[in-house]
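Structure first, sequence second, as always.
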C-alpha cells in the first residue's frame, strides 16, 4: 500500500489537508481545514492526533490565521489570540505549545517586514518543523532498531506510527524499518481503550506494512508478558519532564509496572520536541480529561453503561522515570540520569544543526 500523507498544505496554500483519523480504518477520508475553528475542532476531536502531528498541524494552522488576518491593523494582537486559541485545543502533548512558541518567535523576529513577507517566513517555519520531524523520525527509528533483533516481539500501546507524526513514526518506526530491511519482528498491539488508537490505527498501519501484528485488549498485556512472548515494550510519548517522568496514552504507566515486574525492557520514543525541560517532574504535566461518552458509548452499538453513572476519563498517565529503560530520541537513547542526559542530547542536536547550517 502506498504511503499515506497525514498532513499537507493544499496547493493554493489556503487550507490544511489531513486524514480524518476518527474514520480509520473503515474509511480513508481526507478533509480540508480552512479556519482556526476547523483546526481547533480537528485537534480536539482527534481527527489529527499524536504529539508531533498535533504540533505540525498547529504550526500550519498558525500560518493560515496569519494569511487570513495579514491586512488587519491589529494583526499582532490577532495572532496572539490565534495562538492562545489553538493552544487550548489539547493540554498534554507539549509539541503543540512547542510548535506555537516557535511560530510566535518567527513572527516577532520578522515583525518589521512587510506583512506578506512575514506570512512567507511563517510558512517556511511550519515547513521546517514538518521536515525536521520527518528527519527526527528516521533517526529515532534507526536508534530504536538497534534495540531489537530478528525474531523479537514488541508490545506497543496507542499509536506512535506515521499517522501520529510525519513519517515512519517514533515507536513504530523501528518496526517499519525492520520490515523494510527484511527482518522478522512481531508485534502485540494493545487496542487502547477508550478511543482504540491501537486497534484502529496501529493495527491498520502495521498490517498494511505487512508486519506480523496481533491485537490484544489492554488488560491482556500482563498475560502475554507472563507467557514470555514479549522482548520489549515500545511506546510513544506526549511529554517527558526533565527528571524523565513521561506522559503517554492512558495505560502506559500500568504497562511500565508490568514490564518491570516481568523484567522486560521498557522504551519510550520521543523527538526532543516532546521533552519539556520546563516541567520538573510528572507532577507538572497536565493530564487531559475527556468526555465520559468515550467510555460509555462512543464505540459501542448501544450504550454499555447505566445512564447517570459516574465516569472518570483521563486520556494520559505518567510513567515514573524509574520504570523507563530509555527514551529514544533523534540524538540517541537517553537513559538515567535523565536531566543530565537530556541536556547532552539537546547540545548534540544544537551542534549537529549548527554544523549543517554552516
Ligand atoms: O490521544 P492521542 O491519540 O493523541 O494520544 C497519542 C499518544 O499517546 C501517542 O503515543 C503519543 O502522542 C506519541 S505519538 C508519536
Amino acid at each position: 500500500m502506498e504511503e499515506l500523507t497525514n498532513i499537507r498544505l493544499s496547493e493554493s496554500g489556503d487550507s490544511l489537508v489531513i486524514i480524518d483519523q476518527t474514520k480509520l480504518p473503515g474509511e480513508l477520508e481526507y478533509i480540508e481545514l480552512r479556519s482556526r475553528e476547523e483546526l481547533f475542532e480537528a485537534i480536539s476531536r482527534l481527527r489529527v492526533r499524536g504529539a508531533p502531528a498535533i504540533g505540525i498541524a498547529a504550526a500550519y494552522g498558525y500560518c493560515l490565521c496569519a494569511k487570513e488576518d495579514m491586512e488587519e491593523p491589529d494583526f499582532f494582537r490577532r495572532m496572539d489570540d490565534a495562538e492562545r486559541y489553538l493552544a487550548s485545543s489539547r493540554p498534554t502533548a507539549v509539541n503543540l505549545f512547542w510548535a506555537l512558541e516557535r511560530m510566535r518567535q518567527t513572527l516577532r523576529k520578522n515583525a518589521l517586514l512587510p506583512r506578506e513577507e512575514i506570512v512567507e517566513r511563517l510558512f517556511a517555519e511550519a515547513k521546517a518543523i514538518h521536515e525536521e520531524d520527518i528527519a527526527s523520525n528516521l533517526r529515532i527509528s534507526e536508534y530504536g532498531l538497534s534495540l531489537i533483533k530478528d525474531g523479537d516481539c514488541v508490545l506497543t500501546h496507542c499509536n506512535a506510527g506515521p499517522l501520529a507524526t510525519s513519517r515512519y513514526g517514533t515507536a513504530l518506526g523501528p518496526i517499519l524499518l525492520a520490515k523494510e530491511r527484511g527482518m522478522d519482528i512481531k508485534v502485540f498491539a494493545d487496542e487502547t481503550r477508550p478511543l482504540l488508537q491501537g486497534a484502529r490505527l496501529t493495527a491498520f498501519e502495521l498490517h498494511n506494512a505487512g508486519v506480523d501484528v496481533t491485537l490484544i485488549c489492554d488488560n491482556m498485556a500482563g498475560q502475554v508478558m507472563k507467557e514470555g512472548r514479549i522482548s520489549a515494550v515500545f511506546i510513544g510519548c506526549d511529554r517527558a519532564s526533565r527528571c524523565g517522568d513521561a506522559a503517554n496514552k492512558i495505560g502506559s504507566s500500568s504497562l511500565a509496572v508490568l514490564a518491570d515486574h516481568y523484567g522486560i525492557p521498557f522504551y519510550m520514543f520521543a523527538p526532543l520536541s516532546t521533552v519539556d525541560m520546563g516541567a520538573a517532574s510528572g507532577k507538572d504535566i497536565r493530564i487531559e480529561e475527556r468526555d465520559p461518552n468515550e467510555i460509555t458509548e462512543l464505540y459501542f452499538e448501544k450504550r454499555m453503561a447505566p445512564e447517570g453513572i459516574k465516569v472518570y476519563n483521563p486520556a494520559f498517565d505518567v510513567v515514573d522515570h524509574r520504570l523507563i529503560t530509555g527514551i529514544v530520541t533523534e540524538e540517541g537513547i537517553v537513559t538515567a540520569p535523565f536531566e543530565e542526559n537530556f541536556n547532552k542530547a539537546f547540545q548534540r542536536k544544537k551542534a549537529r544543526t549548527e554544523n549543517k547550517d554552516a
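Margin note: The pocket of MRU is lined by residues 46, 49-52, 93, 158, 160, 164-165, 169-170, 197, 236-238, 248-249, 315 (CB under 6 Å).
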